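Friendly challenge for the regulars: who can give me the structure tokens for this chain first? No prize, just bragging rights.
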Amino acid sequence: MPFDLILRGGRVIDPSQKLDAVTDVAFAGGKVAAVGGALKADPGTEVRDVSQLIVTPGLIDLHTHVYWGGTSLGIDAEEFCRLSGVTTAVDTGSAGPGNFAGFRKHVIEPSEVRILAYLHVSHAGIFGFSHRIMVGESEELRLMNPIEAAKVADANRDVIVGIKVRVGLHSSGTSGVVPLDIALEVANEVGMPLMAHIDHPPPSYEEVLARLRPGDVLTHAFRPFPNTPATAQGTVKKAVLDARERGVLFDIGHGKGSFAFKTARAMLANGFYPDTISSDIHQLCIDGPAFDQVTTMSKFLCMGMELSDVIAASTVNAAMALRRPELGSLKPGCVGDATLVTVKQGQFDYEDVVGEHLIGDRKIVSEGVVIGGRWWHPN
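First reply, four minutes later:
Bragging rights claimed.
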């Protein structure tokens, strides 16, 4: 089959293949067709010189809110992804069983960007989240019907990848950890992983982790005090180590209130890296402090993570969490998504959610994306 597109001469970093080399990547029929030197172009092949760029598998942002117009926190997936190098945006609970059909018809299906979703166990998803109105949807247990949630999840397996629940003082209030138990019941019924949001206690970090199963995701994993994974002495809590040992995944989910440099430094100093890096992008953090996926990745690069590990946490690791091995890789036969970036040198001011600033010397900048084997909206 002739190639539709060749990215010529870029530095290809693909952690799924342990690949870091200057080479070509070719696409055909919407998939990765070949990776290798001096790939031959046919008369109709589009060839792009990317010799000054880094080519990675298409970035996956595991925590976004892209139900634009349907929820107050939703942002426009196509605009956001074009600028931030994301080819797969995973919406995490913006919609629940009662409004998922609208999310699917009006946002997911028309989108050129791939949108997958964790279905919120609460009937209307995250419906009251704005500058002026904050309603903890998980506090109202009458909005949670396991049968209804399981029915919707089962009927939309092509785009629903798991079940979402938010627990904590601000999201579940007096209901505490009960919404998590309801969400786990649904996840078990449909055979899907669960993503749990955690904020201020109650419940505690330990209470939430104790319930999570192998393959479940704890998002906001490097959040600030209170409910942090690190002790006051800067060590990793035993419950956190035990959870990782049994296969629980730890996701960043930066957002407006869920990432602190102090926590991240303590965890990284102990060799505890996040499984996945995500932005938790929404209307309240798109103008800072999260901004986007590549900014969140840049923070970890400036805190000492290797570039390949940062990329892995935004590609192959995220694909594994989604149970979608066709994503997050440039292996021939995989989905034809790629992200092109540069790493700028300089002095860059990064901020966490508690107002601490980090002056970093590097910044990952998106230079374009390939989606489904096509060069898409170059920046």
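The mean pLDDT is 97. The radius of gyration is 20 Å. Your move, everyone else.
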